[in-house]
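Bug: token stream looks shifted between consecutive jobs. Job 1:
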Amino acid sequence: MTNGNAQRGSDQAAGKFHLAFIFNFTPDDWQGPFGTGGSPWDGKFHTEVAQALERACFDYVIIEDKLMVPESYGGSSEAALKQAMVVPKHDPVPLAVAMGVATSQLGIVATLSTLAYPPFMTARLSSTLDSMLGGRFGWNIVTSAEDLAAQNFGLDKLPPRDVRYEMADEYVDVVRQLFASWDADAVVLDREKGVYADHTKVRPIHFKGKYFQVRGPLNTVPSPQHRPAFVQAGASPRGRAFAARNADSIIAIANGVEGMKQFRDDVRAHAKDHGRDPDDIKVLFCITPVLGETEQDAWDKHTRMINSPAFIHDILAETSALTEIDFAQFDLDEPLPYRLETNGEQGSLDQLQQWGTGKTLRELVVDAAGGLVSSVELIGTPDQVAERMGEVMEEVGGDGFMITTPVLRLNRRYIAEVADGLVPALQRRGLTRSAYTPGNTLRQNLLEF
């Protein structure tokens, strides 16, 4: 295997960056001409997507998740269910297993909410998955941001955002201690002496904090990574600090190149404050590239998308679900009447509202044509988009991109455009990985450059 530090320095000098992909276990592009019918519940469609992403040498794929049926848009669940926005959404863990078994090198990241899973169960589940996938599992740490989700777990409403992150910091501390409750060499498998595990190398943690109390130890053996990769998305100042303290990779959304650089610089400053090496945290910026055989073809596709009435209402229904603000109450052709605040996903709200611009709500949605998840506009041929991605990363300073679709709806055509069109154009420029390093875990792949 190539020396890690030497390889890392060489690749950084060459400007190589990481790629990941995010989707959720929801209907595919069920109304589109290239959809597969809207019933991907056996997991085969998403498993095929994972195989395509592995062929393109992505670092990881992440399965996003929510834990409720939205009722914010229009004051009922009608729009969400009619449009299949945010719901239905199936559990990511079985899908993570299916995708992991069907691949051999791609990282598989599942969303597990600190609201829904006790710390012991998260640690146990993550350890089991990491062992099953040979060191390729990652935990996407979310606190959940919807009161409707809280009401599914015995609460009337969510705590304020800062309290949620305080709880999450303690939660992650518990999980880390549970992973460490077994020494790496605790399993000895001594057949002659009849000893499977050395009891002196397995110990309770006796954790008693402000929010959690866990005895331990974990009852699973150390997995290949001993702890999985930690992935997190946090746009608020408190969220950024949490991510900088805990994450190996951060999912980020920013407004343009300047916003991307500011976000990354801020996270890296927080990392130093926590005594971490900023280079150990890979900030991946969400993008929704529109690809065509010609530049005009790509722009035509983009224009058709943003002018679709369904697109406008999908974006507003999604934003309502994420923020629990009813955007159906506002006139599409008038500016938002006041600056909006939320205890939900403030970053998604800020991405949409662009307060002070005077733009109408319809114009704001068109501006957010990436579906609130596009950090920079990327429209053109694979070569044009690849060239621009390289320029953006050079200006931002790193670390890579999280590719997705405007409303997290997928079809095989889009995956082929990315995996067989865009990625080869990136690889020809030496911008992304062309092969995995044999034997690497997900965390090692993230640190390779």
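Job 2, same session, no restart:
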Amino acid sequence: MRTVAAAILLTAFIAGPALAQDHVQRYREEIEKSPADQANEQRAQRAYQRAINSVPDQKPVDPWGIARSDNAPKAAPKAHAKSAAKTAAPKQAKPASASAN
């Protein structure tokens, strides 16, 4: 019996403030705006557009530009890269102790 009473009391404490609100805007519900609010909104929109248009155009940023040099050779085609990888394999040197004997 006590748990039922505690549950009802808890529900009342939670639901009380929610039901006391005058109006909660629902999804896609339009709120009527006064002419002063509409004028303020239009003024803010014009100010935003002026601010956006006053920003100068910037060139694209290359974040790896510092790491690359401008005159670096272009990458070789894949067929050529495979044959270059085969020929560029380092040869293993003989150990120094074996050549001393």
